[in-house]
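Archive transcription. Copying these from loose printouts into the bound notebook so they stop getting lost. Printout 1 of 2:
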Amino acid sequence: MTIKDIAKETGYSIGTVSRVLNNHPNVSEKARKIIMEAVDRHGFILNVSAKNLKTVQSENIIIVVKGTFNELFPVMVQRIQMYFRETRYTLITEYVDEEADEVTRARQVCLEKKAIGLLILGGNKENFKKGFDRIKIPAVLVTNHAGDWGFENLSSVSTDDTEGARKAVEFLLENGHRNVALLGGTVGSDTSTQRRLGWEKAQEDFGIKKEDFGPQVGGRYSFEAGYEAMKKLLKGDKKITGVFALADVMAIGAISAISDAGLSVPEDISVIGYDGIPIGAYFCPKLTTIRQSIDRICDRSCEILIDRLENEGKTRHEFIPFTLDERQSVKKI
């Protein structure tokens, strides 16, 4: 873009634009304001000769992380950073609360940093419905499936959370547990909704009536919330032998609460988690869990975004296979 283009957009003469860019005093404040707003809006700077303008090309990619206590996301951010280390792009990471509007914040940061690409870790479908159409750059939603959300610039890479949860609860049922409690989840969380559906489906597949489903206690994805939710379950009327926690951090908090109540895992209560965070393999007892393929989810998300940026590649929505890691926290009864 040249001075001529700026003049055409603002309605001022080329001479007036040139005087503003060269900081000459004989220009009205109104003209100076309008011209400089146009220059700032397009991200241009004056070149050495002060006769042309050149674009300041951003290479910024924003990562918005929804949730500050979920131990899964720092692992994912580290993997994404490793991937982009060998590229020309600059990553900027922004954390928002688990219950905050990640889409609104993503749009704000993208505008502030002149981003060309966006990765969102964790999403609420309702927030996307309300505001994602205002984001025009290529984006990838990581850990949530958005295949039916209807945005042409939004790809997604995730585990099939419904099927993963169904497999976790099925494992408990196959080991003799029938009163399987559900631990965790917040209102509006698409991840929680999908995993809760898997919990229900597994019981239905085993012929368990809805009124006979195990108890549910919600909570944020954190160690503390898992601990407090488990305390509530232990005070309930129904005797439980198995617990499906919607996240490993909640499962670990639950095991601590069970221990503090004078009980043990898996002798008294079996616990299975979801995510496959590293600490689960070193906890005592070692946590049985649905392990997401974190490295592959992150790498594939990065591949899709770069393909969109560099090759105008297609929008894609992909499920990455999960693994049931059988460890020490589930007992056959």
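Printout 2 of 2:
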Amino acid sequence: MPDAYAVSTYQGRAIEADAADQAWRALWEHSPQRSPFSALAYQQAGASLLDLELHLVAVHDDTGWLAAALLPVRRLGPLRLVHPLPFSPFSALLGTAPPDEAAVHHGTSPWQTLIATLARRYDDVSLLLPPTVADVRFLSWQRWSVRPLYTYRLAFQDTAEVQARWSASTRRLYRREAARYSVQEAPEALDAVVDLCRQAYARHNRSMLLTREHLTRLGHRLQQAGMARTFIARNRSTRSIDAGVCVLHDAQTAAYWIAGSNPGGAMTVLLGHLLPWLRDDGLHTFDFVGANTPSIAEFKRRFGATLLPYYQARLTPHPLLRALRLLGRSPR
């Protein structure tokens, strides 16, 4: 495939020293792949906390940047491994537009140049593509393994009344339980929300991939940066926090990021208050962040959100790592 574009790579302090941070932010502002998880501040906070390098690879021509990737990189001796930040549903991948079918057919898409560059420069690459990258043939045709995942998204502009699209059972549960809880924004309760989240993961036999300390520190850092807000539902009788969510957000999208609840209706009541608040704050979309566990997916479906596919893509160019991966022993 001929390279029709130039490629620039930055890492560490060079991202800011060479003004690449400004170019990333400019692309992020208008990219269809924009999300809170691709914000430079989020990726920098996560990489710093986990002692990872942060690399930026940009594909451009005379008109400017066309596609770019912000990559957390872990060194394993001489090897360079690229994996999404833990607790992140999407990698930081941006383009001026989704992959164009005709350009993909002719091998001239900037997305093809981007993934070819990653294949040459890194030894193991795992990506979680934003849902707006729906045509993934440019990856599978280059021998990347690709598998589908799903999330639910709620568009606030679809209805003036947030509850109008809820299932009947969810509306009944909300009406029955609403008086039991006081719902409020409570940034000081983040630690308790992390604990509820950890308990929820344990009930579903799932691993969080982040320690309690790391997740709490990341949440506090993003709250201080204005990118995260914590909300709780407190039981009026027991005064216990029965549900909580730390919402990651930009000016357009809010994400159900760190969330957990005790069994019962507390989370339904919390969301019944939270979703109108976010809409009234000017946000356009609420991403429920994943619909890949049956019971959790059903809970999210009942809020009237739209099911969207997205894709995990992986390529392991290094032969030893590829052999270990086939044996189920690849490093993480």
